[in-house]
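Protein modeling request. Please complete all fields; requests missing the sequence field cannot be processed.
Requester role: graduate student
Desired output: 3D structure, token encoding
Chains: 1
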Amino acid sequence: MIKTYKILSLFLSYPDTDLQDFLYEGIVELRKEGLLGDPIIDNLGEFADHFTKEDIIDWQAYYVSLFDTSRKTSLYIFEHLKGDSKDRGSAMTDLMDFYRDNDLVLSERELPDYLPVFLEFLSELDKEKASELLAQPVNVIGRIYSALKESGNIYRHVLEAVISLSAVSPDDEDISLLKNDFISNGDDGSYKKPFNSSGETIDPGH
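Delivered output (206 residues):
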């Protein structure tokens, strides 16, 4: 297992007392594995400091307000690409099949395009393959990061860490397209299928 992907998955998951108790341990494990640079881990340390001191009920309410009520910061990847269009269902099915082909079985309550679920899946791969697959939705992740950075939100540090693991950096032009188009159109013609059954890297600009 690649612990870094698993820990970042946990950091982006709905918070509970177990996660709160794990925050500092997670930072220690990130330093041990060494996939992230020291400045990024230092920023994650600020994230851990902040939420270790937070009342868990307040943190949970904050999480829901941030990620579940705003589409621009939604952690559901296909919401940024497909909106509420019928294509989202078929994309979900394709991704579920891809997970199943790679021995990941989700519970009935888990949706396959939830970013923490995707990161957990990547944690079971080798580092090179995980980095390549992370590159497929990296523009969506970059969009979420951009929105959080603009508002100075502390969760930006976790998204920054995720992006740093990708084989490619987010494309600023494609992020702008997502910002401008996804709310009104629900889908952009350049973003038809960020994951495929073969697991090949897809250039989202073509």
